[in-house]
């Protein structure tokens, strides 16, 4: 490293250097003690935040677990309700409705087809129908 580069000291290094040297001692001791206090406070705040997040997640998991237990407890009743016989629509009624729909579709198709054809013209053709050899 070059002589102009200064390494930043950690608070612990600064405190130990301040206690070691008497010339710059009081300044380094003060800066080291303040730095250690700040780092300690930051670490404590981080720990408290992690504990809060973990407790919040645990509370949410307990709530979800209670809801899941309630769903599982109600499962036999739900299965029993699902097994109840449902009233079935008579097959003949369904067949009749199907035939009626098909018949209606056929009638509609034939009406639309007839209306789409052009009316024959009352005028004689403009071109000779039988070609001459």
The secondary-structure element order is: HHH
**Number of distinct helices:** 3
Number of separate strands: 0
Q: What's the gyration radius in Å?
A: 47 Å
| Gross geometry | elongated
Strand fraction: under 5%
Distance between the termini: 112 Å
The helix fraction, in percent, is over 70%
Helix/strand/pairing category:
mainly alpha
Spans of at least 5 consecutive residues whose pLDDT stays below 50 are none
Main beta sheet: none
The residue-averaged pLDDT reads 80
Pick out its properties.
133 residues, mainly alpha, 0% strand, elongated
Would you spell out the secondary-structure blueprint of this structure?
Layout: H1 11-20, H2 25-83, H3 91-116
Structural overview:
Its main location: membrane. One of its GO terms (biological process) is regulation of cell shape. Belongs to the CwsA family. It is a single-pass membrane protein. The chain crosses the membrane at residues 92-112. The protein has 133 residues and is an all-alpha fold. It has a domain at 8-77. It is 71% helix and 0% strand. The protein is built from 3 helices and no strands. It has helices spanning 11-20, 25-83, 91-116. The longest helix has 59 residues, at 25-83. The termini are far apart.
Quick structural overview:
By secondary structure, the protein is an all-alpha fold. 71% of the residues lie in helices and 0% in strands.
């Amino acid at each position: 490293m070059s002589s102009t580069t200064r390494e930043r000291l950690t608070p612990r290094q600064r405190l130990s250097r301040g206690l070691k040297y008497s010339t710059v001692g009081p300044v380094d001791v003060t800066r080291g003690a303040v730095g250690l206090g700040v780092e300690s406070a930051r670490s404590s705040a981080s720990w408290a935040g992690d504990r809060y997040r973990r407790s919040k997640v645990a509370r949410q998991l307990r709530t979800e677990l209670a809801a899941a237990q309630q769903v599982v407890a109600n499962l036999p009743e739900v299965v029993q309700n699902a097994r109840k016989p449902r009233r079935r629509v008579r097959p003949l009624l369904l067949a009749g409705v199907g035939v009626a729909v098909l018949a209606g579709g056929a009638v509609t198709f034939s009406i639309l087809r007839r209306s789409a054809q052009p009316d024959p013209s009352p005028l004689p053709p403009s071109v000779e129908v039988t070609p001459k050899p």
